[in-house]
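User: Fold this, then the next.

Assistant: Folding the first:
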Amino acid sequence: QRLDINRLTDIHQMDVQSALDQMRSLISGRPHVVYKTAYYRKQTKNHWARDDPAFVYLQAAFLVFVSLAYSVAFRASLTDGIAFLFHSLVWNWLVAGAIVATIARELANRHLTTTQSNTHVQQTVEW
């Protein structure tokens, strides 16, 4: 699929309310609701992933807010606060998330997907 930069950066193209509802469902202990919407998306569009990056942007924004609040609460200096924010956002969230997602994708594609007849669409887990 083609990467459309305008869609990645246009806030009007993002479904922020749906992303917030998914976050609320995950936090409140109802992941089956998020699974059900992902399952319906898979049935209608034949992919599991969301069309817009709203969930990722909101998650990053919340992480920035919490990192700054943590730095203020513990009276960290400006450079320590920026270093903590950078470490939290880049290393803990982005790099560790990419590593876990890659390993989980490989394991799922090797051991959890089934091979059906040639008439079915090939099922693979997306990264």
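Now the next one, as you asked:
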Amino acid sequence: PDVKVEMDVLSLNIRKILISHGGSVPLASLVHCYNADFDPLDVEVADDGKHGVPLEHLLQAVKGIVVNTGATGIKKIEEATPENLGVKQSDLVGPPPALAGQLITFTREIVDMLKTIPGCKLAFYKFIPRYHHHFGKQCRVADYGYTKLKDLLESLPHVIQIIGEGAKTFITLAHKAQVRRFTNDLLKMLKNQPEKQFLLSSFSLVFEKTFFKPLSIYDYGVCHLTDILTDIPENTIFTEDVNEATKSDTMISVFRRDQTQEEVMRTRGFAKEVVELLRHSPDLSICFNKFIPAYHQHFGRQCRVGSYGMTKLIELFEAIPDTVEIREDGEERMVQLTKDKMIWVVGEQVECVVKTSRARCVALVELEEEYQKMFGHLMPLGRMGVGRVEEAVELLQSWVRVVNGKEGKMVVTVDRGFIRTMASNVRRLLVEQDEGHMDLGDFIEKMATRFGSHIEVEMLTRDLSYLVEVKGDKVFLTALQLCARDIEVVL
């Protein structure tokens, strides 16, 4: 029957029943024995998977007990011992190599199909027609090396659990499979949050926003959310009790192991390597699944995420959000440079195109063609958020400029040495001010009298935006530069 019960209560009471019954209880009489000794189980009349969880499935999650089928076909609950937990020879050998790939695909198909059904529970006799309806193809048991469907499903105990008996035999996802599925869904929910964390009390709301459907905890094979949270593998999530006004709550966040200083330095080096790798890719992006082999081919060594204090490649990318971002492209995930890094890379590439031309300048109308000749692909205008080459050059003012020549508009390189000198003089002048800012008029006058340099507001906002901010009629050092000045004073 479908029941509603907390796992802690069920686990404790089942152990007491086994002790009082000599270590073994027939599954068919468990409800009667349970109700006689403890508060009656909340048994649901409706068997639709929307109001409870099969008791036999919950028993699979109780540690220290096992449900075994005897020689007569009667299922019994027993204490787990080395004898009744004996590993079958077939489990050790596994499927034939020729069938392993097909079985893995079949396993994924079952999970995909069952998770669309309320309670992830399907009557055994409905499996074949449901499979045919869901995937549009026949389920041929012989293709997987079996003659009976039941034998095939029983060979997948890590994914499938067969519960009930006779006409009331059902197929459902095993508890371990449900925990894996819940863990993946929870991580997806967390990663959709700006700070990768949320309160337990808002779980249902976050779930609905992420998956566009209301949460039914029974679909994960438990009656209460806390029951499955306790089974999530270690080092996956981090929970912390917090007090919100009058009530206490729990904050759930993605588990992060603090990186060592050496790992932090390696991660910074990895960010530079990612830029180096992606700058050679069209559209400055690469398919997530192709990153590892591309890295190996380009640098001649393996990319070992453990060296950076991570366990997954996606975590390593998330540690460098100012360098790359992950976007969904249909069913594929793409690793791409952030807009700032992309502009930096394209700026250097366009600068290279102009510098290598004979006249050290390129006609604006020919720039895209010359770029394609050198790099083998078009400029990623769409990724840069522009539609024309002229607009792209406007974004690359730190590397190239458009000037009017005899033959029309020409693209020339910027004198980077001049900009560096101006940046040094601007910083020196503003650092000397107590508040780190000056009136714009006084600033321009001081730059002219002290350094002999005429500086324009356009240059401040275009080339020195990392150094200063122009607000109204004042020039300010950025917050980072003010912090650097204070550190210099201390040292």
